[in-house]
Amino acid sequence: MSQTEQIIQVSEDIQLHTIISTPNQPTTPARPALVLFHFWGGANNTYRPLITHLCSDFSLILPSLRGWGESSRPTNPGAYRTADYGADMVALLQKLNSESPELFSNGVVLFGHSMGAKIAQWLLTQQHLLPHSATIRAMDRGGIVADAVAGSEGARAAWPRYGMGEDFEDAVKGYGKYGGALRVLVLVGELDMVEPEESVKKRTVEVLLQSGASVKAFTLSGTGHLSPIEAQEEVADAIRGFCL
After folding, report:
1. H-state helical runs in the chain
2. Are 34 and 27 in contact (CB under 8 A)?
3. Which CATH class is domain 2-243?
4. Residues 150-170: tens digit of each pLDDT
């Protein structure tokens, strides 16, 4: 694989540290690029274990969200709404598409975990979504302490203070009226206490089905709320199966 790390300017005051990985050889058949949005307390570094499992099959785009990792850290405590993160992602994808259109020649699949999944959901409400979307609800238990501690004060406080309460379910239900097929993968940890399986079925799967989406849902046995480390192979296999 070929892997680079870039600081990408997405607005006047926001730069996003972004890992971009591409296969050494063209894939056959051609496959979409994968964009991975991390969770509260994570950074693009969180997904490095998945890179080793997916880098031969897909181009990968892994941004650190504002306030996390090596990305910009707004001091305004109100600058970490889902819409703020989402606007950054739209600008990032638009900029990459203008500079490296070959990355998106076969479409793009969006993956988000926890807070990252809500960002993907927000993108649906804004109709900025590119051909396919996937939502991952379960990731790793370990290896995230350093990233969580290193997040900016505003970013760490925002999600529990107001981000978790932002609700886009009704807006997503209306997605179908705009036309176009939406395919979604939902993964949930069997032992997830943050997003229990029944809650995910009701607030994610059922809402997406009401929007007219085609939804595949899987439960990861023995997995809690987090999994790129504890269940990285299972997550990678699910992603691969969804995209191929």
Report:
1. 48-54, 82-99, 115-125, 145-150, 153-158, 169-173, 197-200, 206-210, 232-243
2. no
3. alpha beta
4. 578 888 788 677 777 777 666
